[in-house]
Amino acid sequence: MARLAPRQRRGFTLIELLVVIAIIAILIALLVPAVQKVREAAARAQCQNNLKQLALACHSYADAQGTLPRDGTSLFPNTSHGSGNQPGTGCCGLGAPHWSWIARVLPYVEQNTIAQQAGVPDGYMNASATVRALLASVIPVLACPSDTSPRTRNDAADIGGAAVMGVTSYKGVAGANWGADFYPTDSNFSTPYRNIGTNGSYNGLERGDGIFWRGDIRFGNLKLIHITDGTSNTFMIGEDVSELIRWNAWAYSNGCTATCAIPPNTGITIPTGSPPSLGEADASDWPARYSFRSRHTGGLNFALADGSVRFVAESIPLQVYRAMATIKGAESLQLTD
Known about the structure:
The protein is α+β, with helices and mostly antiparallel strands. The chain has a domain of 232 residues. It contains six helices and nine strands. Strands 7-5-6-8-9 form a five-stranded mixed sheet. A two-stranded antiparallel sheet has the order 1-2. A hairpin with a 7-residue loop joins strand 1 and strand 2.
């Protein structure tokens, strides 16, 4: 009886192996962008949800207090930057209650404990070591997932003395006015984004034509009915990337507002985690950086005064972008996706 020879097992040839490897590489190349797109969509959705919560918190505050949250302190006269003997401005230092609009809405985003322990709105910001520590609190609703900046920073250069501050991915919209009359005698001040406001002023720091600016408490209450351009046509809160602008702190009224006079996503090409370069991308160059930007692809999110949230393309015409930032400019505009 003849014996059958054992069957030989055939292996892959080199060409077949290379083909398999190439197919796997192609699949990975197709899969990675898809995964990144899904992650970015999820991050963008979470960011929009954060903005929605903050906008609704402002509405709840307005219902309870009869005004939208304000910035700064009304307890002391202001003598800084030639502004005269007016109620206290939002600038600068911890030796006064320079609390931000964000600090004031903490009870409406489930952070009432921080607000109470810190003494918002009338307690001094340097009242004790406990209060100073609370200024560095990392608050989840203030962090966009796409903004991977460090969640705290040493803000000593602005407020004087060592102070660690918690940062924010979201800032109040000061309006669209910007220019050299912040410091009329300062020859070092310059900005390529000079723009007169609907209120007749260039001073977007101390007299913005939007909803929030760093010393807006000096001008009294602001109700939703005062937004005569319409709440659905007015930006309330927008995104920022804290590592790209030194003036960023959720508790502090000089660190939580920005202007739409400067185009969206200015300087956003600086890579994440890179030290800022000189010029427009310098984190200390506030005349060209006190603005809105995000790490989302192609644009950034804004909450409108009616509580809705929109994604705004960075290619938006500057005239429309600025018009959306004012509260009573009577501009003719249409915001499209």
